[in-house]
Design a protein that fits this description.
The complex is a heterodimer of chains A (244) and B (209). Chain A is of the alpha+beta class. Chain A is built from seven helices and 13 strands. In chain A, strand 8 and strand 9 form a beta hairpin. In chain A, 48% of the residues are buried. Chain B is α+β, with helices and mostly antiparallel strands and 209 residues long. Classes of the chains: A alpha+beta (244), B alpha+beta (209). At the A-B interface, helix 3, strand 5, strand 12 and strand 13 of A face helix 4, strand 5, helix 5, strand 6 and helix 6 of B.
């Protein structure tokens, strides 16, 4: 995103809408009493919130033409944009939301996700790469339809295409399947890599309803010192196959 | 993605916060799903008027809900503040049987109780296992309660602080501020009722409610 300096009147209404604090105010050379808004393009994740907020009366905020690799910022930050390079809309997949129809997750394995930059911080894809490489060493199966998977130069090692590593996004998700015997090593790898991450990341586990009682996965999770929130997502099981 | 997961806060406020989403399964029931999604959206919004939207289209605070319903192609979202409305909605969604997946987030014991009362058996669940990495960069807990109500991260912590300041300076009130915070959340899962209660607490107006 950019702000047309000739149109900006220095009202300073836009900055608070930016989720990553990329809008800053600078003294206007022509009028020292005015501080105009500018966007730090290295910090901007191209989420479009400032534009959609419609608080800019002179309509000085606009989206510039964006080329690869900056275009990954759009795909992983603005939910209204579909990413041509990855071919996958949005930041993640349908994951457990439609599982009663797709049968993607089956008993005998766990779905897991690591979302870099969430909540409310944003992050560089190089952080994601560190985590992906640690997970790849354990041999987890990365979800082929996840848009992050399209950014890997080598899906076996978790190494990203070099040109995207410094790109900053609101969040990007690594989705993967874990066999029961991999759960402890995966959690240990996440613990080990955590202090090396510049941003934050959230962690998820997809399983079956019986897991909420005394399931084996949560026993491992708790034993290894990970918190389990009392709230989460529940698929109601109302989906069906309708298109033959 | 996991956008209705990872909501944080005190249990008493989480007990009044149930985002619901519907989503097509591409390749299985997504083709020509518009009318089915519209029917689901009409049912959802009959039982809750707190928020409604879809990230590919927009939300009720930025465009006409009727227009949103006409444009749905993959899914939509609403949020509930109480179990009775949620159960009534679940029962009706089961009755209208549109064959598109529905997911509800919230405190597990509460959501399971609602499912049981609505005659539903959930096949799959998702747990949040915390936030890791450089957690010093996180907003303070009281701001995170707002920020985590938009899983796409579109609600700025700075805007929360600004809204608190505006209420204190009487430039706004809690209801208006809560709606302003709900606007950036395209999907419609940000709960303005919960936000209003949290804002009241932050500005010291919670007594006598």
């Amino acid at each position: 995103m950019r702000i047309n300096q000739e149109k900006c009147i220095g009202c300073q209404l836009c900055g608070d809408y930016c989720p990553v604090g990329a809008i800053q105010y600078f003294q206007d050379g022509e009028n020292p009493k005015t501080k105009k808004a500018r966007i730090d393009e290295d910090e901007c994740v191209e989420c479009g919130v400032c534009f959609r907020a419609e608080v800019c009366q002179p309509q000085a905020i606009y989206r510039q033409e964006i080329q690869w690799p900056r275009s990954v910022r759009l795909a992983f930050s603005d939910p209204m944009v579909e990413h041509k390079q990855t071919g996958v809309p949005g930041r993640g997949t349908e994951e457990m939301k439609t599982n009663e129809v797709t049968g993607r997750f089956k008993r005998g394995s766990y779905g897991m996700a690591v979302e870099v930059g969430r909540p409310g911080v944003g992050g560089r894809l190089e952080d994601l790469e560190k985590i992906a490489m640690a997970l790849a060493k354990i041999g987890v199966e990365f979800e082929p339809k996840n848009p992050v998977t399209f950014l890997f130069a080598d899906v076996k090692s978790g190494k990203l295409k070099p040109e995207v590593r410094k790109e900053k996004v609101l969040s990007a998700i690594i989705e993967f399947l874990v066999r029961p015997e991999q759960l402890s090593p995966v959690l240990q790898a996440i613990k080990d890599i955590s202090p090396k991450i510049d941003s934050v990341f959230s962690l998820d586990l997809i399983s079956f309803p019986e897991e909420s009682e005394k399931g084996p996965a949560l026993k491992v999770v708790k034993k290894m010192g990970f918190p389990v929130y009392p709230n989460g997502k529940v698929n109601l099981g109302l989906g069906k196959i309708l298109n033959k | 993605m996991t956008h209705t997961l990872h909501r944080t806060g005190e249990l008493d406020t989480l007990r009044e916060d149930f985002p619901m989403l519907t989503h097509v399964a591409r390749g299985f029931n997504g083709q020509g799903a518009g009318p089915r999604l519209k029917k689901i959206a009409q049912t959802m919004t009959k039982h809750t008027d707190l928020h409604f939207g879809d990230c590919k289209v927009g939300n009720k605070y930025t465009m006409d809900p009727a227009e949103i319903m006409e444009k749905l192609t993959v899914g939509c979202q609403v949020v509930f503040k109480d179990k009775d409305s949620l159960i009534a909605c679940m029962k009706e969604l089961k009755e209208i049987d549109q064959g598109i997946s529905i997911v509800v987030s919230g405190i597990f014991e509460e959501v399971f109780d609602c499912c049981q009362k609505a005659g539903l058996t959930p096949p799959l669940i998702e747990f949040a296992l915390g936030v890791h990495g450089n957690t010093q960069k996180l907003w303070p807990a009281e701001i995170l309660e707002f920020v985590t109500m938009c899983g796409h991260g579109l609600v700025s912590g700075r805007l929360v602080k600004k809204m608190v300041e505006d209420i204190k300076k009487k430039k706004s009130n809690v209801e208006k501020a809560a709606i302003e915070l709900a606007k950036p959340c395209l999907c419609g899962i940000f709960n303005p009722d919960r936000a209003a209660k949290l804002l009241k607490k932050m500005v010291g107006q919670e007594k006598g409610l």
